[in-house]
Amino acid sequence: MTALSLRGMSKRFGSLAAVDDVSIKIPAGCFVCLLGPSGCGKTTLLRLIAGLEEPSAGSLHAGEREITGLAPNQREFGMVFQSLALFPHLDVAENIGYPLAIRGHSRSARTERVAELLDLVQLSGLGKRRIHQLSGGQRQRVAIARGLAIDPKVFLLDEPLSALDANLREHMQVELRQLQQRLGVTTLVVTHDQKEALTMADLVIVMKDGKVQQAGAPMEIYRDPANAFVAGFIGQSNLLPCTLAADGSVGIDGLQLKLAPQDRIKAKPGPAMLSIRPEDLRPDPQGPIEARVAFIRDLGESVQIALDFGETRLQAVFAPRERPQVAIGDSLRLAPAPGGVVVLAPSAEQAA
Ligand code: ATP
């Protein structure tokens, strides 16, 4: 079942298209991450869904019902802002119960629901505290509980974890995901952190310049990027300008590389971009790629080796047991793992 469908939604600010013709269907119960670099339009898209911005074009549907013209409070969506926007003059319980108070719920109904929510976000016993008496993670939980107070059909969060330090952030990622799974609420989270998106989401929507570049499951986006931007933005990737020949082989810096049947070609013959993940470069004495070791980083659970291949710096990563016995300056032959190569359409700069 589709919870939300966006049809040709755009938002212009003067001549800038902050959101540019976005059409997407969001299945009910799905955890969605809107991901992209700063200024790509993630927050604007979330605000369009919340009803806090009026679209310049397009429409929004909740199930079968068009809701484009509905005011934010008529949509029955929960929202957590980046700033959290908690009220310092109210205590924790009053903050959480606020959306219910403005909807006219009785005091007893509010008290009961707030107790449930405090329990849900593991803050039972802290209802009487003021916001300034809470830790960063506890404040985050208050904002999440307040966003869930009305039992929303859709839960919208704008960079909810960005103010937390790395450890707490990872902990809250897991907590938020478990909470969402327990409640089954359709959730959209804005983030610019690709690791956060890959670990939490069922569906990742990658944006650039107001446009959706790719929407898919995290591993689909990682293994099968739609274009060079997505390949470079999600995880680490070796991106090499190349020429795709009509026979399906690729020329890189004088080297003609034969592709494996499992490799994916998403470009027309001519200039293209080859993408190989660092873990897909294997040491192989017969391998077609000969590169010079530039740097070795031993991280215990893995070894990262940077190599110079012509003008290009390649990154390779090996499990400790597979570590090639090389030192800086040595030459190393590598072969791409079958299925590890994606040939993509050239990036805009390359095509220009
Ligand atoms: P960040 O990760 O930095 O928060 P974002 O991807 O959420 O960025 P948006 O905040 O949606 O991006 O902004 C998209 C573009 O629209 C930016 O160029 C921004 O400057 C512009 N923009 C956003 N809101 C307005 C506004 N009210 N008036 C004019 N321009 C705006």
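^ adenosine-5'-triphosphate complex. DSSP finds ten helices and 21 strands in the chain. The CA atoms of residues 240 and 312 lie 7 Å apart.
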